[in-house]
Each structure stands twice: as structure tokens, then as C-alpha cells.
Amino acid sequence: MREDKNQMIKNKDIYYFDHASTTPLRKEVIAVMHEFFNKKYANAASSHCMGQQSEKAIEKAREELALLIGANNTEEIIFTSGGTEANNLVIKGIAMAYAEQGKHIITSSIEHPAVLESCRFLEKHLSFKLSYLDVDQDGFVNPEALKSSIRDDTILISIMAANNEIGTIQAIKKLANIAAKNDIFFHTDAVQAVPQMKFDVQEIGVDALSLSAHKFNGPKGVGALYLKSGIKVIPQQSGGSQERKRRAGTVNVPGIVGMAKASELVRNELESKVEKIKDLRDYFLERVFSEINNITLNGADRKNRLANNANLSFKGLDGETILYNLSLKNIAVSTGSACASGSIGVSHVLKAISIEKETAKSAVRFTFGLENNKSQIDYLVNNLKDTVKHLRSLK
Ligand SMILES: *Cc1c(COP(=O)(O)O)cnc(C)c1O
């Protein structure tokens, strides 16, 4: 029997190692959301007593999110429907607001599709010019390459803090500093980073940052954009004047309240959480590297990668086939980002770190979480070993 002391919803029959795609809700989070579905259901924009109750809860949540990332004031937090919307709002919104100052934007080739496709939208429909920076074989953006890609008309740089597929953590302070020196807005997609490392927007010097609640045991469909005071964005949906006219639409009160609770838990438990997850990840890596031949770790070394991430290539095999075989044993893993799976071809991230196409196709991503434990890792490794052995014997 597996023991599990965490405050998680238990799904006893499933061995879940896909936490970069989403994480399970904490019970504490569900508990605080509950009354905002049942009793406190008013629209936060209504001026009656009940509306004020919702509005108060939203403002309290805003304070919690500001605290998590070290924002100066609560006005800098804009609630959205998730990381995807935060990325769309900041990239398209800043581009449209500052287009008269220039139409050049710099990003990297390993960004989440929400950033990459927002950039492509600007290229295609609004004649912006984009520079997609290459990364090295560990997934790092070269600060010198960033410097030399800056032009007179560059208005925005967007580089993710940590990658969702290979876990590489960028030297974001250094990159943000280059932007600041050149008077260019700097945005970072910190959807994966904030749940796993201390991240202070003022200390690091970023102007904008994207967050998503479901990547840190909060609900899906809610996120936030941190936008430094004084920076304008053109709203990307037309409608009401919610979120200080930057994001129209009735705010998701239960979702936001849940996100704030999840945020408080991250803030209070970050160190112990990261240590626990890192220990599990390292235990996994030690076992697989000593018990399975011909495997490689894609991305940066353990020091410069997210504590929960292990992206492995299994020589000669197909990642999708491994995923399918593990899935038959109730094990959930991924072969890339969830958004990219199902689509044909090699992950754009693995392509960007220029590993061989065959190596990329044999990649499987294992991402660990709070509710995992050592015996689950043993179950995973034992089944992985059998699967790899079996598939290789067929060759
Ligand atoms: C999950 C993810 C997103 C998208 O967030 P959603 O809330 O799922 O829309 C954006 N960027 C990164 C790095 C992610 O991992």
C-alpha cells in the first residue's frame, strides 16, 4: 500500500507524473472555493452587499498574489483565465500600446505556444518584426545573442523563466537587466518557475510576468498577469471595465480565491515542497541511470533545471510507444508539452536544443509533484524498465 499524508485528492489507481501539464487541487484550495460557488456567488462588479463581498475576496486574493511575486501594489496584478491569456494579453497588448515606438519584439525559440503564437499573430496580422533567439544544447538563451538582437525599434523582450518541457531555468535576472539597460519592456512566462523557486519581480527586474493557478495545485482556468505600474496594455477582449479596463469579463471569483489559497501554500511551503520533489526526481534519475542502458537527460544539469523535471531519451525507441505502454499500467507521463502532443512531429523545444531527430522522438517527460512518494517512483521505474526491455527486445 502506498501511504500518502498530503492534503490531496487521492486517485489511488493512477500513478501521476505529469505535473508540468497540470497539478491536482489541494484540499485546502477546494475548501476555500466551495463557499464562493454556494453562498457567495455574487458578481464582484455588483454594488450591492453581496457583490461587495465578492469584490473584497478578489482584492484579498490580489494582495496574496502580489505578495507571492513581490509586486509593489495590488494594481499590478491582473486576473486572467490562465497562463495562455496572460501571455496573449501582455504580448499583443504591449505591442499594440507601444507600436508607434517600434515594431520589433525579441523572444526565444523554446517559449510556450501561447507566447510563440502571440508573436506569430503580430507578425502575420500587424506587421511586427520578430527575432526568435536560438538556445544552446541545454536550452539556455545566450545573453550576448540577446544583446546583439536588440534594434532601435525593439519594444519588448519575452523570455520564459523556466521551460515546461526540459525544465531549463534561464539566467532571467541577467536577461532582464539587458532589457532594462536598453529601455525595453521585459516579460517572463513564469508559469513553471514561480511554483518551484523564489521569484521576486523587483529583485529580478521584470516588467511583466505570467502565472497560472493549475500549475501549483490551484484550479484550472485562472491565472494572472503581473504588469508593472505605468505600463500600458491594449485589452485583448472588448467588454466591461473589469480589472481596471485591462481585462473585460466577469471575474472568476471561486477560481481567483482558489488561486490565492494555492499561492499562499506555495509561499509558506516552497522550500519543503521543492526539497521533497527534488529528492523524488533525483531518486528516480539515480535508479533509471543505473538500471536502464542507453538513456540521456535532455536539457540542463540538475542545478539549472526545475526540481520536478526529468526529460529522458530512450535510444532506439519511440516516446509515444513508451507513454502508451506505461499508460496501460496506470502511469501518466508525457512526451513533450501537452499542447504539442497529439500533433505530429518533434517538439519545438527538443528541436531547438538540436538533439538528433531520433533522440527527440524517443523522449519522455516525467514531472513529479507533491502527492508523489518513493514507492510510486519504484512502481514507475520497475514498469519503465520492463517496458524498455520489452520494446528493445522487439527490435
Ligand atoms: C501551462 C503553461 C502555460 C499555459 O497556462 P494555462 O493556464 O494552461 O493556459 C503557459 N506557459 C507555460 C510555461 C506553461 O507551462
TrEMBL record:
<keyword id="KW-0032">Aminotransferase</keyword>
<dbReference type="InterPro" id="IPR000192">
    <property type="entry name" value="Aminotrans_V_dom"/>
</dbReference>
<dbReference type="InterPro" id="IPR016454">
    <property type="entry name" value="Cysteine_dSase"/>
</dbReference>
<dbReference type="InterPro" id="IPR015422">
    <property type="entry name" value="PyrdxlP-dep_Trfase_small"/>
</dbReference>
<keyword id="KW-0479">Metal-binding</keyword>
<dbReference type="InterPro" id="IPR015421">
    <property type="entry name" value="PyrdxlP-dep_Trfase_major"/>
</dbReference>
<comment type="similarity">
    <text>Belongs to the class-V pyridoxal-phosphate-dependent aminotransferase family. NifS/IscS subfamily.</text>
</comment>
<dbReference type="GO" id="GO:0031071">
    <property type="term" value="F:cysteine desulfurase activity"/>
</dbReference>
<dbReference type="GO" id="GO:0008483">
    <property type="term" value="F:transaminase activity"/>
</dbReference>
<dbReference type="GO" id="GO:0046872">
    <property type="term" value="F:metal ion binding"/>
</dbReference>
<dbReference type="GO" id="GO:0051536">
    <property type="term" value="F:iron-sulfur cluster binding"/>
</dbReference>
<keyword id="KW-0408">Iron</keyword>
<keyword id="KW-0411">Iron-sulfur</keyword>
<dbReference type="InterPro" id="IPR020578">
    <property type="entry name" value="Aminotrans_V_PyrdxlP_BS"/>
</dbReference>
<dbReference type="InterPro" id="IPR015424">
    <property type="entry name" value="PyrdxlP-dep_Trfase"/>
</dbReference>
<keyword id="KW-0663">Pyridoxal phosphate</keyword>
<keyword id="KW-0808">Transferase</keyword>
<feature type="domain" description="Aminotransferase class V">
    <location>
        <begin position="16"/>
        <end position="380"/>
    </location>
</feature>
<dbReference type="Pfam" id="PF00266">
    <property type="entry name" value="Aminotran_5"/>
</dbReference>
<protein>
    <recommendedName>
        <fullName>cysteine desulfurase</fullName>
        <ecNumber>2.8.1.7</ecNumber>
    </recommendedName>
</protein>
